[in-house]
């Protein structure tokens, strides 16, 4: 058990039989009434974000999440197969479990699998990945203010807003949090 007074960003907790990670929290001590902790939590099972208020000093369960090194092998229909790099055990995750992450997954990529008591919650991607541009319009100079952008489709199917000088065949570094262009690789 852990007290809500000890919340930290990134802490994983168990509340009402669900697993959450703390995204944000704020200790509030009003002039009148009892103190409380206002928090923003992300459900690791379904990805939903909820805001929840706890009484100061209230205890919640601590969830110990396992991070195991895995390698993405291949896709077969709506199933995506991964292999444990130590034991060579293989297992599959569905398209539903990997909605956002599919925009960045390449075959043979090493990632971390998040699991709680044997239940796989999802995958943890690196902060950025390098992806090849497969389709983009040529950049046209003129009639642009600074910072002009165009769409570029990368090898995973994600469309990234990039500067005009990016061409087909270029390799981009893309942020996996929000899918934005960082630089040319």
UniProtKB/TrEMBL annotation:
This is Elongation factor P. The keyword Protein biosynthesis applies. The lineage of its organism: Bacteria, Bacillati, Bacillota, Bacilli, Bacillales. SUPFAM superfamilies: Nucleic acid-binding proteins, Translation proteins SH3-like domain. Residues 67-121 form the Translation elongation factor P/YeiP central domain. The keyword rRNA-binding does not apply. Signal peptide: none annotated. Belongs to the elongation factor P family. Pfam families: EFP, EFP_N, Elong-fact-P_C. Pathway: Protein biosynthesis; polypeptide chain elongation. Keywords: Cytoplasm, Elongation factor, Protein biosynthesis. It is found in: Cytoplasm. Involved in peptide bond synthesis. Stimulates efficient translation and peptide-bond synthesis on native or reconstituted 70S ribosomes in vitro. Probably functions indirectly by altering the affinity of the ribosome for aminoacyl-tRNA, thus increasing their reactivity as acceptors for peptidyl transferase. GO terms for molecular function: translation elongation factor activity. CDD domains: S1_EF-P_repeat_1, S1_EF-P_repeat_2. HAMAP family: EF_P. Residues 129-184 form the Elongation factor P C-terminal domain.
């Amino acid at each position: 058990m852990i007290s809500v007074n000890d919340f930290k960003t990134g802490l994983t907790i168990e509340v009402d039989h669900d697993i959450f990670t703390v995204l944000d929290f704020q200790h509030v001590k009003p002039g009148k009434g009892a103190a409380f902790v206002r928090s923003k939590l992300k459900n690791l099972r379904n990805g939903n974000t909820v805001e929840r208020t706890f009484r100061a000093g209230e205890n919640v369960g601590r969830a110990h999440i396992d991070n195991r090194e895995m390698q993405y092998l291949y896709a077969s229909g709506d199933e995506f197969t991964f292999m444990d790099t130590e034991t060579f055990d293989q297992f599959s995750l569905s398209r539903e479990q990997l909605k956002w992450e599919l925009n960045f997954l390449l075959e043979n990529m090493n990632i971390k699998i998040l699991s709680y008591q044997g239940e796989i919650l999802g995958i943890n991607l690196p902060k950025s990945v390098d992806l090849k541009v497969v389709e983009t319009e040529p950049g046209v100079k003129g009639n642009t203010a600074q910072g002009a952008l165009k769409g570029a489709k990368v090898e995973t199917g994600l469309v990234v807003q990039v500067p005009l000088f990016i061409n087909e065949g270029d390799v981009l570094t893309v942020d996996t949090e929000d899918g934005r262009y960082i630089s040319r690789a």
